Amino acid sequence: MGIHRQGTLIHWNFFLAMEEDLDRLSRFIDFSGNDDAFSIEIARSFLGSCSEVDVVLKQLCKSINPNSIAGSINAYFNEVSETFPNFQSFEVTVPRLGLTLHPWEDWNKDHPPFWWKDHNKVKHHRHDHFEKANLKNCINSIAALYVAVLHLYKEQAKAGELLQFPKLFNVSDKHFGDRKSGSAGMPR
Fold this sequence. Notes:
The chain is mostly helical. It has helices spanning 10-25, 40-64, 73-83, 114-129, 135-152, 154-158, and strands at residues 92-94, 99-101, 170-171.
């Protein structure tokens, strides 16, 4: 008997792996008031999620405009915000941890999100800015990745085809209209 293989949604699977790392981290750090906690493990998750945000936004721009040459956080802004005007106000909740996040709310064409600026400091000058690899930035970057991936796979999200479901993150029905019960991001 052979193995039947089909394509997978690689960015969805990557997000789920990042979320699983965050869930595991929540066993060791109380998320209710330790925003400034930093560590090698948090830095690893923070850098990984930001790298994936960059990849997903580039893919999202290509899905919007196949001729897109956008290649940086500020360059992605116009294409993403024109096509998805509610992208910046997109709300993510983490009910189990009592969190509500708006990871893109301070993004504009000349100003990356706060967590992205800190990511660049950690990425390029970790020896001087290691403390910016903190819980607040990590949670926001993974929430930002969730938002970006949901937009990249918007049709699959609407159809309830993003499987397996997130363990921590949720979004409101208002973001995807008439989704099937139990679709990705829905409270279970």
